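Issue: ligand-bound run for calcium ion - logging full I/O for the record.

Environment: standard queue, default settings, no custom constraints.

Inputs:
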Amino acid sequence: MRVLVVEDDPSLGQVVQRGLAEGGHTVDLERTLAGARRAVAIATYHVVVLDLGLPDGDGLALCRELHDQATPPRVLILTARDATGDKVLGLDAGADDYLTKPFDFAELAARVRALLRRPEHARSPQLRVGDLELDPAAHTVQRAGVTVPLTAREFSLLHYLMDRAGEVVSRTDLLDAVWDTNYDGLSNTVDVHVANLRRKLDMPGRPALIETVRGVGYRVGGDAAPEVGK
Ligand code: CA
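Outputs:
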């Protein structure tokens, strides 16, 4: 299951991220509202652990936005604000649970597990392009029924492309969406990752899935590709 931790206190954020990861979850950490918005636009999260006091705004705004999504993640608000009024505001904004700092990590982990047990998260929409299937919940990719092991970065990259099947996605958009803003790597990073993805996804006798649109970017599920699923 995939969890997003939004917390601007670096040490607390890392403790929560590491602790939940040890519990077997895939955990991403963001320190700002902007970063969190970018993360939820790329990946499908089952639970968001959300601090309210963030450097660029109030976590409640994100909570409301998430609540308006077709399949919203569960939101657990984690904050130093402990007044009853704040708790009510949080729950009214669509939060599923609320924990005030300071807290016991064991309690946080138990609450996250409880949120993940809620049945509506048993299934989440799969992305399908031709014989390629990506399951955001299970974090798996299959081609023609064969599981393809990907790195987290390759998975995010493919997820982003499949979410926009049929559209040409520029390298800049991919860098922005899949790499964090501090990323200052070489300009051919996207190309290298796409090449790796292709190597893993290509199967003899089956059509290539990721098309290069010269001078523009990449496309999955374009005209050249087989039928685009839901
Ligand atoms: Ca804070």
